């Protein structure tokens, strides 16, 4: 038995994880367009969509556009899934850098959005929960909220086709 | 494209939808909005790409166009009494939209009650025989 290795310094671990996440997110132009960023706590991600004028649907209310909300939920689901398959590779011993080019994104098969209340003109947050992660198909549930975590303003469920690692 | 007189309620509705900040920001153009039918398109551009490897437009951008077009179809139905908000929207993605091509959505409000409008839509690119995506949605009927 090899002697147990000392745990890596915390900065090294954090940097590796944050870089992998940043590379994954930066690769998608539409995520930048929406202004969505991801907060990471260990392996848990929270998507953040800071309020912006261009996300407004009804200027009279005003309320977030249903399309912006749907896109936010779908982005959260796709990054959540990609992160779930990326994580074991980042954490594998001796795994150096995880090139973002190796990270092929899951493809949406279907996506159903449930609008619970109108999105207010302020920041929105979302988390994805992976209900099933198979080799070919995955099922994901996402919830988005604003001021109060217990009062989601939208939720969605979708099926995704997983990227094949063998190419 | 349907030419609409500039002073009709229909034209005002088109103006309303085209000027929604998010619709404007994504570059949506309304071609038609009459009797529960709406047609809109959105030109391809870099910012809308979801898969950098292929240049394929993000599903979320297609969703936004679907949602707007379905809402417009619901609102221009003769049975509609005012504004509308999306209750639920399901989108099935049949294939990746061809990079560089404009996405066009045709939506029909096929049933409306005092409370709910039922809408279906199809998204197409240049190959009109093979839909990119289909959607079904339910919308509120306000003032009903």
SSE layout:
The complex is a heterodimer of chains A (167) and B (144).
Chain A: H1 10-26, H2 29-34, E1 37-41, E2 44-49, E3 56-58, E4 63-64, H3 66-91, E5 107-115, E6 124-133, E7 137-145, E8 152-161
Antiparallel strand pairs in A: 1-2, 2-6, 3-4, 5-8, 6-7, 7-8
Helix pairs in contact in A: 1-3
Chain B: H1 9-18, H2 21-26, E1 29-34, E2 37-42, E3 49-51, E4 56-57, H3 59-75, E5 86-93, E6 103-112, E7 116-124, E8 133-140
Antiparallel strand pairs in B: 1-2, 2-6, 3-4, 5-8, 6-7, 7-8
Explain what the structure shows.
The complex is a heterodimer of chains A (about 170) and B (about 140). Chain A has helices spanning about 10-25, 30-35, 65-90, and strands at about 35-40, 45-50, 55-60, 65, 105-115, 125-135, 135-145, 150-160. Chain A has a single domain, classed as Thiol Ester Dehydrase, Chain A (Roll). In chain A, helix 1 packs across helix 3 (about 65-90). In chain A, about 30% of the residues lie in helices and about 30% in strands. With about 170 residues, chain A is an alpha+beta fold. In chain B, the strands form two sheets. In chain B, strands 1-2-6-7-8-5 form a six-stranded antiparallel beta sheet. In chain B, a hairpin with an 8-residue loop joins strand 7 (about 115-125) and strand 8 (about 135-140). Chain B is globular, with a radius of gyration of 15 Å. The chains are: A alpha+beta (about 170), B alpha+beta (about 140). The interface of A and B includes residues 53, 55, 65 and 118 of A. Strand 5 of chain A pairs antiparallel with strand 5 (about 85-95) of chain B.
């Amino acid at each position: 038995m090899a002697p147990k290795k000392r745990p890596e310094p915390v900065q090294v671990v954090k940097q590796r994880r944050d870089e992998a996440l940043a590379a994954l997110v930066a690769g998608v132009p539409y995520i930048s367009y929406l202004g969505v960023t991801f907060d990471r706590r260990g392996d848990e991600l929270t998507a953040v969509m800071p309020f912006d004028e261009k996300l407004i649907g009804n200027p009279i209310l005003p309320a977030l556009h249903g399309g912006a909300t749907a896109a936010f939920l779908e982005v959260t689901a796709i990054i959540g899934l990609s992160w779930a398959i990326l994580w074991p590779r980042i954490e594998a011993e001796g795994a150096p850098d995880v090139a973002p080019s190796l990270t092929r994104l899951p493809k949406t098969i279907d996506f159903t959005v449930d609008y619970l209340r109108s999105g207010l003109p302020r920041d929105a947050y979302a988390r994805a929960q992976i209900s099933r992660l198979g080799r070919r198909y995955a099922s994901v549930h996402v919830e988005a909220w604003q001021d109060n975590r217990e009062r989601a303003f939208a939720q969605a469920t979708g099926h995704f086709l997983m990227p094949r690692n063998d190419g | 494209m349907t030419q609409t007189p500039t002073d009709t309620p229909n034209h005002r509705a088109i103006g309303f939808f085209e000027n929604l900040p998010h619709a404007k920001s994504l570059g949506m153009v309304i071609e038609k909005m009459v009797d529960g039918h709406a047609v809109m398109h959105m030109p391809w551009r870099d910012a809308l790409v979801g898969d950098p490897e292929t240049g394929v437009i993000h599903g979320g951008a297609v969703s936004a166009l679907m949602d707007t077009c379905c809402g417009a179809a619901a609102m221009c139905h003769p049975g509609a009494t005012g504004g509308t908000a999306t209750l639920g929207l399901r989108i099935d993605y049949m294939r990746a939209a061809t990079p560089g091509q404009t996405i066009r959505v045709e939506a029909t409000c096929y049933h409306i009650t005092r409370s709910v409008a039922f809408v279906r839509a199809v998204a197409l690119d240049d190959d009109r025989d093979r839909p990119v995506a289909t959607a079904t949605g339910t919308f509120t009927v306000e003032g009903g």
